Amino acid sequence: MKVTQSLITASGIIKNGGVIAYPTEGIWGIGGLNTSEIQQKIYLAKKRDDSKKFILLFKSSDQLFEHFPEAEKYKETINSFKNSFTTILLPLEKGKTAIRIPNYKRLVEFLDLIDKPLISTSANISGNEVCKTIEEIENIFKDKIEGILDMPLGGEKNPSRIYDLELDEYIR
To answer: 168: how many CB neighbours lie within 10 A of its CB?
Structure first.
């Protein structure tokens, strides 16, 4: 497992099909490209039920609308959450998809280098507390992920709030 402070090195790990741990605004996350292989790898690493879904992180609302043109009808509401630490449940034909456009500058820079949406989940074994340090991540995910992006968290104290666009309310 490679621990790096370089956004370029970490984005290279992701682009080459790896999974890394990285800081978000409030907690450590793990993620990779949105492929079934990477999803399976994360499910196994976290000992997570594969019925649980991931959050898709986008570098911008433009990138989100490129991937989900049907989200355009929620553009004003989605854009109103740009500078908040909020995950949005986006209603789509195939069901709801959790999306987030981070407001943590370093994470946005990282996503910009990857230039694709990132599947994301908390850095923990399913049902346990989220890892709080790089050492915890190294111990728990030893040979299960390829890297750790060594940067500070973004300053929030809790996981993101969750807003359901269809219900038009916060559910967490």
So the answer is: 8
What order do you get walking across the sheet with 2-4 strand by strand? 2-4, 147-149, 20-23, 28-33, 118-122, 55-57, 95-100, 86-92, 161-164, 169-170
Per-residue exposure over 123-161, b if at least 16 CB sit within 10 Å of its own CB, e if not: bbeeeeebbeebebbeebbeeebbbbbbbebbebeebbe
pTM, whole model, 2 decimals? 0.95
Closest among 90, 143, 98 to 122, alpha carbons compared: 98
Per-residue model confidence (pLDDT) at position 96: 96
Length of the chain measured in residues: 172
CATH number at residue 11: 3.90.870.10
Q: Residue type for 86, please?
A: T
Domains: count for the chain: 1
Average pLDDT for 125-138: 96
What's the domain range around 130?
Answer: 2-170
